[in-house]
Design goal:
Blueprint lengths: L15 E2 L8 E2 L10 H17 L6 H14 L6 E3 L1 H12 L1 E4 L2 E6 L2 E7 L4 H5 L6 E5 L2 E2 L5 H8 L6 E8 L2 E8 L1 E4 L3 E7 L2 E6 L6 H15 L4 E5 L8 H9 L6 E6 L7 E4 L12 E5 L6 H11 L4 E4 L7 E7 L5 E10 L15 E2 L34 H6 L3 H5 L1 H17 L3
Helix pairs in contact: 6-7, 7-8
Length: about 425
Amino acid sequence: MIHSLRRRLPLFFLVLLVQPGFSAPLPVAVQEPSKLPTAEIQSFVETFETIREGYVEVMSDEDILHKALKGMVSGLDPHSEYFTKSELVDFNELTSGNYAGIGVEVEMKDKRLTIITPVDGSAAKEAGVLAGDVIIKIDNTLITDLGMQDIVTMMRGEIGSTVTLDIERDGEVKHYELTRRLVEDASVTDKWLDDGIAYFRISQFQGDSSTEFSRAIDKLKAEHSIQGIVLDLRNNPGGVLQSAVGVVDVFINKGMIVYTNGRHDMSKSQFMATEKNTKLATVPVVVLVNEGSASASEIVAGALQDHRRALIMGTETFGKGSVQTVVPLSNGDAVKLTTALYYTPNGRSIQAQGITPDLVVPQATLTFDKGQFFVKEAELKGHLGNGTGGEERTSADVKSDIGELAKSDFQLFQALTILKTLPKFTSKN
């Protein structure tokens, strides 16, 4: 989870942060510095000099320092990174949702480069790359011991150029050759599933995703009143915290959405619902999640679950409950630092645990045994009529009830079934 705003953190040394929109750097409040570990700093200087003088290849002082800084930050946890100026530009492009590459969200999990999700409409998605796949090799380079930014750089490149991936899946290695393209990811898609049942998919939480979501709602409401909603967050790897808050705010008009807690006061924050943004306060909602739903997706699912505002359906989520803050440095580089954990309104931490759905529904392939033979009363010779003029149903009618949606996306079919059934019970109550 990434704060979209650059926030000033109290550091143990003097640093200047440049806030977007300001022409001059702003000083950071500095805590009373603790005594520096002289012996350890001496060891660092000696190591630096040893590398500079004795390493088999000549390296500039800047390269050595960057590697040291990257190692220091990445050793904290899988989500903290040190960015050089150029890497920071690339990172900002990624979070904007407009970049050239193959379109995968990846995470180091147990020292294995795991695909959290392929981005909708990307080369990886179209080639059949799946969430949970483990990347072993990029082109001819093993990813072992590569930093995350190095990995991202290798997968990106000129539009039209190719990159090969060796991927492990279920004990087998699969080879993919993918053509890089411009990934222009509109994070929200919408459509009608049935009369009055709207479907919204959020593929990732970009800076403007909550605005996109609001516009999509207005577009469908202009066509037809919305009687039920499926919010699809499956394989959504997360993104910007404020966008997740904005999406939840559409469904609830009061109370806590999420709060964060860390070591420093600036890492402690609360996000509350507001009445002015609520568009769908009473419409029944089913939220679809799976093992590829992470971070911001879990904030949305956890908040709606705690408020009993939606039925969470699918499989257990990824379990990333930490907040990263991008802290610009005075030299133009930046540190993406884990600064807090986030908690659902009821105080649940999702970190390394995930959201357990209210209704666990694994994805399944639904087939119909064509060889199965059965008859219904309506097919018996001399059967009685319905008595009320109702339409008779034969075995052929039962078979036709298994529609394409049930075959192609069983979880979505189940969500639609619940939303279509729910009014029959709620109206009686």
